[in-house]
Amino acid sequence: xxxxxxxxxxxxxxxxxxxASATERVRWAHETYGDQLVLTTSFGVQSAVxxxxxxxxxxxxxxxxxxxxxxxxxxxxxxxxxxxxxxxNLKTYTPLQTAAQQEALxxxxxxxxIDGIERYNRINKVEPMNRAVQTLGATAWLSxxxxxxxxxxxxxxxxxxxxxxxKVYPIxxxxxxxxxxxxxxxxxxxxxxxxxxxxxxxxxxxxxKLGDGMTQEDTRFGGLxxxxxxxxxxxxxDFQI
Length: 241
Description:
The chain is an alpha/beta fold and 241 residues long. It contains 7 helices and 6 strands; from the N terminus they run H-H-E-H-E-H-E-H-H-E-E-E-H.
């Protein structure tokens, strides 16, 4: 039995997570993993949903924010606003190399095809996230992935094992309408760039507005790659998310 199958089987003994509500999934994760549970956020378009949904139940949960150094200015103001409003226990992690150092040593990696993009993601996202989880002693991670966001997420389960960490996706089955309804009912904002036509917001150099004939996947990394490395199932014994 694979690690992921073991996690699913264990979870199903107490609650059928596939049909549970988002609130029930968060509660289950907290009861199961306690202080070893963390929440991640990119302060993206719809990030206020998960930040509110989780912190209503777990006010002091560590909220990991990986700051690549290439975020839109409005992402920083959005992050500051939500952090203050929701009283987030924010833990910010940055790459070991600054943006200036990376470009001096490697050039603009995001312009160097798939290999360059993957190297960029390892430096700016995967390594800081690995460090965050190790530093905080986390064994489980709440994330806001949704199946409708991309083809690569369409078959994801509510609970998955990714090497040494259990990942729980409370809103995995939510639609865009569900997101809108939750934000509206709780008077929460979208990211400021939503009103300018952005449906997904990451680094400024690899994020585009949604144009005619484009899918949401096409708005990131020129459509070459949807996942940034944090949600790819990788092999090996090292903790890598």
